């Protein structure tokens, strides 16, 4: 494992802002652990529902607990009519992350979390409903279709692909979606999770915490990078063109989305896993060059800048190979990270003090209001 990066300076880098029992980043195992388990171990051996159970309830489920949890989630997929009405009014050119934000907020109006006793149920409802919600909007706004979201899908991974494409996905695609959702599920005090915790610290409701977190994840410096990476690589015709494009961007000091990380120094442990799945998917894809292009980007960025792919970069080609429209990439991140966000909200609530840091004032000196006639 790479040594932890020296962390200091702006952006609260390196400052401990609270305690968590949920995950470690850049500390042990391959570099990312959820409640003590290595993310690679979890991605190789568990479904997303098992990992959601681990993150939200503290332990991996036994078979009986898993069956009960999956049955509960399957029963919570229906979209309230009032939410469908709102989704149908959002235009096709809206950003799907804005749809997620509005949808989450609307659900909070319809099924308000009245007390913290309801926090697990409120979370499970969102976990079950979000994949169908975004794909209901997508299919209605782009194809004029009102889709059925109460499918026979066995899992959240299958439910996302099924409600998007209107048919049961292949085993390989479902397996990749499970791995992807596991990889994105939790990541300590990243920007969106910290947003959720700040909101939770005011004793606000779960939907407000998650709505705020969605807003933070949307930006290209955070979750939006998978989408930005796709926009970049789809313009590249072949590996040599990819190399020339990146060299030009680096010369112009442009940021390359999907590379670098605030905490990891030499690699993001999630990258090797999703890269492996991207390679497998490329073997049956109609545009396999995207994988070789991505591999060349990785090599060039390391050679030129010692910058490595973060979790987002190979997610771009993997999702593209599964026929997922680019703008739906970051909403998938939401469907997964919801587990981490909600677990952090619960953790914050269990030992709360309002989060209220101080600022260093750099404005003008103290002064007196002059009468308006002399200003
Ligand atoms: C799931 C996730 O959210 S993972 C992150 C997804 N975000 C991205 O992929 C966006 C692209 N990456 C970045 O913008 C950054 O690497 C971040 C936001 C992830 C981390 O930011 P920081 O902690 O400030 O990065 P760091 O301190 O390592 O930056 C060091 C230098 O490398 C540069 N750098 C970092 N990442 C990149 C990049 N992707 N492309 C070009 N240059 C970069 C920085 O500009 C900085 O240069 P400077 O000192 O001249 O300003
Ligand atoms: O930890 C971070 O800053 C960003 C990140 O990788 C994540 O949230 O998954």
Automatic annotation (TrEMBL):
Pfam families: Citrate_synt (PF00285). Keywords: Acyltransferase, Transferase, Tricarboxylic acid cycle. Pathway: Organic acid metabolism; propanoate degradation; Carbohydrate metabolism; tricarboxylic acid cycle; isocitrate from oxaloacetate: step 1/2. One of its GO terms (cellular component) is cytoplasm. InterPro entries: 2-MeCitrate/Citrate_synth_II (IPR011278), Citrate_synth-like_lrg_a-sub (IPR016142), Citrate_synth-like_sm_a-sub (IPR016143), Citrate_synthase (IPR002020), Citrate_synthase_AS (IPR019810), Citrate_synthase_bac-typ (IPR024176), Citrate_synthase_sf (IPR036969). The keyword Acyltransferase applies. CDD domains: Ec2MCS_like (cd06108). GO terms for molecular function: 2-methylcitrate synthase activity; citrate synthase activity. It catalyses: oxaloacetate + acetyl-CoA + H2O = citrate + CoA + H(+); propanoyl-CoA + oxaloacetate + H2O = (2S,3S)-2-methylcitrate + CoA + H(+). Belongs to the citrate synthase family. NCBIfam families: cit_synth_II, PRK12351.1. This is Citrate synthase. It comes from Parathalassolituus penaei. The lineage of its organism: Bacteria, Pseudomonadati, Pseudomonadota, Gammaproteobacteria, Oceanospirillales.
